[in-house]
Amino acid sequence: MTNGFSRYEKVSNLPCPNASPYSLVGYSTSYRFIIYHAFPPAEESAEDKAATHDFELSSLKPVSPASLPARTRISQFLILPSHQGHSHGTHLFNAMTSTFLNSSSCVEITVEDPNESFDDLRDYCDYSRLLANGTLTQISLNNNIPSNLTSKRIGVKVPTSQLLDRPLLETLRKKNKLAPRQFDRLVEMHLLSKLPLHTRQSGTARITQRGRSTNENDRAWYYWRLLVKQRIYKKNRDVLAQLDRIERIEKVEEQVGELAGDYERLLRAMERKKSSNGEPIGDNNNERKERGKRKVVLEDEEEDGTPEPKKHKDNNK
After folding, report:
1. Confidence band (pLDDT; 50, 70, 90) for 313?
2. Catalytic pick among 9, 47, 112, 302
3. 284, 269 contact by CB (below 8 A)
4. Which residues are registered as beta bridge partners of 27?
5. Which H helix or E strand runs over 108?
6. pLDDT higher than 50, residue 42
7. What is the Cα–Cα distance from 293 to 302, expressed in whole angstroms?
8. How far apart are CA 217 and CA 199, in angstroms?
9. DSSP state for residue 280 in the 8-state scheme
């Protein structure tokens, strides 16, 4: 089932009396993946086991596909060139998201093969929404892990499960109907924004003491990088397993640095948008140059969890 969304403007100077006063600004389409949930059989009580299993079929009621739980996927998104740079994409995306959030059958909002410009738009809209509805204010990083668990000794593993409240994160993710990868990115961006700028710009210079540092921000910076490394490694496990240990460490460190730089670029763009009274994300020339420096990650993941190689796309959605 495919749905279409359009954005129009009302024109005052009509070419002829019978012409429509509405002119197309942009459009988007989406379709639904019906989700099948396999529930484990319930345990039978003693009475059920003793009873016969004869039953009578009730009259079957027709089921509408639109009422079944589904994952919604945005497949096309276009703002006409003459209307770009005026926040029409932001308004259209937010209108679509609001529709999906109000739909009882939609359980998750995903995007089909987005290009980098659309990724920026999506990150900005989702991040702004999670800020506005109070989701991000509920998320914090626990940087008080016992220092003996952050030692460099062989066999010592940092309990990353203690850094974030995972049950809470999953509840918030489902409530906002976000795909796991997208929600992880927004959480990482939020946690990064809470660190002082001089800490974020220090690279690895301030994390030599790991979790044993007496500086709270340095510990948070170390744990933030650790969480991002863990996510990158899990998503690219098969590719990284083919590298030797030293090369694997270097590759993951490189990816963390690039991802942190990309988050910084997005956070700066959001600040500019606030201060410039709504300047669209991605429409700044310097913004395009910075975005163009991003390297392709080792291997990305489809919105529904299926691994696939990362693709380059130059089309402007």
Report:
1. very low
2. 112
3. yes
4. 6, 78
5. strand 106-111
6. yes
7. 23
8. 7
9. P
Name the burial class of residue 264, with classes exposed (0-12), middle (13-18) and buried (19+) by CB atoms within 10 angstroms of its CB: middle
Is residue 282 classed as helix, strand or coil in its secondary structure? coil
* Structure confidence by residue, pLDDT tens digits, 191-207: 999 999 988 887 777 67
DSSP H helical ranges for the chain: 46-50, 88-101, 116-132, 166-175, 180-193, 197-200, 216-235, 237-240, 245-275, 285-292
Q: Take residue 90 and report the two structure tokens written for it.
A: 């932001």
* Separation CA 237–CA 299 (nearest Å): 9
Q: Is the pLDDT of residue 22 over 80?
A: yes
What is the pTM for the complete model shown? 0.80
Annotation marks residue 112 as catalytic: yes
SS3 291: helix
- Cβ pair 126, 186 in contact under 8 A: yes
End-to-end Cα distance, the chain: 21
Q: What angle do CA 309, 311, 313 make, to 5 degrees?
A: 170
CA atoms of 240 and 227, how far apart (whole Å): 17
**Which residues are within 8 A (CB) of 300 and not within 5 positions of it... i.e. 6 or more apart?**
181, 235, 307, 308, 309, 310
Write out the two tokens for 19. Answer: 């012409």
Of 306, 315, 310, residue with least CA distance to 33: 306
Spatial separation of the C-alpha atoms in residues 171 and 160, rounded to whole Å:
19
Q: Give the tens place of pLDDT for each residue, 158-199.
A: 788 889 999 999 999 999 999 999 999 999 999 999 999 988
